[in-house]
Structures are given as C-alpha cells and as structure tokens.
From TrEMBL:
PANTHER family: MIT DOMAIN-CONTAINING PROTEIN 1. InterPro entries: MIT_dom (IPR007330), MIT_dom_sf (IPR036181), MIT_domain_contain_protein1 (IPR052817), MITD1_C (IPR032341), MITD1_C_sf (IPR038113), MITD1_N (IPR045331). CDD domains: MIT_1, MIT_C. The gene is Mitd1. It comes from Rhipidura dahli. Residues 1-73 form the MIT domain. Pfam families: MIT, MIT_C. This is MITD1 protein. It comes from the Eukaryota.
Amino acid sequence: AGAETVKRAVQLDAASRFQESLVCYQEGIDLLLQVVKATTDEAKKHRYRQKISEYMTRAEDIKKHIEKEKEDGKYHKQIRIEENATGFGYEKLFQEYLTEIVSEVWVQDPYIRQIHQASRYSLYNFLRFCEMLVKGPCKVKTIHLLTSYDGGSGKSQQLSVLEEIKQSLSNYGVTLNIDFSSSIHDREIRFNNGWMIKIGRGLDYFKKPQGHFSIGYCDFDLRPCHETIVDVFHTKHTKKM
C-alpha cells in the first residue's frame, strides 16, 4: 500500500499537481515507516530508509513551493467532489482558510433563494455556512451576500428568511449586508485574508436528504454530494465585490 501511494505521489508530482502529491507523499511515507518497523532484514530496512529519506526531501521541497506560491499570490488548489461523495461539509472545505484574522466575508451566489425546491435547500445551506463562521476560529464581523431575487411568490419568503438570518447573526455581533442582482451568474466566496473559493454549484452542492430524520440531514459531512469542482485561490490583489 505504501509503494502504491508513493507511486501515485510521483505521478501527481510529475503532472504538477503539487497539493495532491504532497498528501500522497505524506501518506506513503507513513505507510513505509510502518513497513520498516515490521521488517527484520537489515538490508531491506536500509533500502526502505533511503527511499523514505528521498521522499521526505521531495515532500519538503513541494511544501516550500506551495508556501512560496501562497506568498506570491499564485496558489491554486482544485478539489473534485465526486457524485454521491461524503465527507465534504463546509468545515472540510473552508476551515483551513478561516484564520483568526478573517473578519469580513463576501458570498456571491445567485441561488440563495429556495427552501422547498426539489433538490435545493440553499437558504438552509447559507444559514449553515453562517453558523460555521460564527463558531470560528475566525472573528467574522461582516458578511456580504450578493444573490438574486426568487421569482413569483417565493420572493416574500426569501426576504423573510434572509431577514431572520440577519437578525439572528446580529445577536452574535455579526452584520449581514444583502444585495440583489438580476445578472450575476458566477458563484464565489472571498475572505479578507486573501482566500477565494469558487464552487461550481455554490453552497448548494449537497443532495436532498432522504428524510428529516435520515443520517446526513443535520451533519453535512454525512450528506451525499452532487459532482462539482472546487477551486481555491490566494491572491494579494483580491478585489472586494
């Protein structure tokens, strides 16, 4: 297993998919270290240790390269969420970038407007995202939401729910600013520490739960997802929406 994981790391490394290759190198090294402990043949131990040393050196080089990209504003990480995959709650995607200095968040998503549409729970999803921000470790004081109006009779319900979220956030010292646009299409989330996350489906990449008392209804890590791609960027020149 260790050899296969390292082999995958080398392939990803050659394809310049450095973030993924670093994870594989780290997992592969851990597995190989376990093999060394279980090996009694000193010659084999020596060969394993040499290889592990080479992989550790390469992993450190990649780590430095990634940090340099972050500093230069050229960092880009892509995550592909497969159909029906689980384990991709908001904390999984965002927590790494919500450092203590984050105080302002911009959410652009044209579909924060449905509650009962067949596969959309966008207003609930936005509420869940806000709950994550309130829990920290960041110290968010302002959230800016740019979305579009729901059509027809759904508009009044949308406005009512957003106002309720706004009032609830104010109890935690967080201001929610809401703006509407009829022309926006792209979905992205920005933090004032320079991180920007683009999700193909926006916050609404979860599938409809099977029922109100089914596993995954409350814990988003257990909720199956729709297939989508997440792109993470860091730039010193990120403009506010």
